[in-house]
Amino acid sequence: MPINNYLSILKESRLKITPRRKAVIKLFLDKGRYLGPYEIRDMLKKISLKAGLPSVYRILQELEKAGILVKVEHKNRQLYYSLCKNPHEDHHHFICRKCNKVEEVKFCNFQEISRFIEKKLKGHVERHSLHIEGLCSVCR
Amino acid sequence: MPINNYLSILKESRLKITPRRKAVIKLFLDKGRYLGPYEIRDMLKKISLKAGLPSVYRILQELEKAGILVKVEHKNRQLYYSLCKNPHEDHHHFICRKCNKVEEVKFCNFQEISRFIEKKLKGHVERHSLHIEGLCSVCR
DNA sequence: GGTATAAATAGAAGTCATTTCTATTTATAC
DNA sequence: GTATAAATAGAAATGACTTCTATTTATACC
Fold this sequence. Notes:
2 copies of one chain form a homodimer. By secondary structure, chain A is an alpha+beta fold. Chain A is about 40% helix and about 20% strand. Chain A contains 5 helices and 5 strands. The first copy, chain A, is globular, with a radius of gyration of 17 Å. The interface between A and B is large, with 36 and 36 residues. β5 (about 125-135) of chain A pairs antiparallel with β5 (about 125-135) of chain B, so a sheet runs across the interface. The structure holds a DNA duplex.
């Protein structure tokens, strides 16, 4: 998805298109992997777009709320985000533990487990999230 | 699994059986749900077993390392643990969002997704974790 | 292209979960 | 019982993340 689509989403969400927001989206597009606040701050500094950590955190929150980014669960329990390419499809993400690349997995067979739970445990399943980790085609 | 089995695991891991460790395991057995450091500290205080937060954190880490507890992923990114009843089986957990009960789901069809990833993305899958949330049979 | 407006940002300061450190206490092997 | 290493208490430190206020800036409108 080209950057202009993301900028349109910003407009739809009544968020102004500022140099920092644009640059953050570009970073995610260019890197193709998940990113954390500190490295984003550092990358922005490199392209002479200084931004304080509070601003970075805020921008990430706003982009998540707009549906442009999604949070990534990480073992160290710190904040990471990745670009959400298909917000409306039921899909999961495959994350490379070496290069942190995030790839979409357009496949979900969760219904089976869901039925198992409804039948055996008599519970009502509302949500699920699957974290898949390994080595991508380049790193393996 | 009765408490003595867990105490045996402690011994195998060369961890001493102290009043606090025993009490923490008992808490998890009794409550049947995931617990965080602060509530554990408070519960210990109630049974006249004062423990400082650093001690609680340490005990939880040790019990996790011994395979008695597992971390629970939580939206607020704070630390929660639950008892691991079958450390050696491939299984997942179903968590009730209302009472925090943790139930084992002895079912896993992950291989399908794994094969999908190996074939389509040419990646190598190493690990996965599935988080399932809803309402348990009592709370629904 | 100016200008008013609300929104965005900077930077200092604050919050709070978690960890580290050191002195003291305690479980266990003998 | 006693020696020893391991466990604990409590103060202090760490560090990710958030809040707050003053200043700057994108945008709508003329």
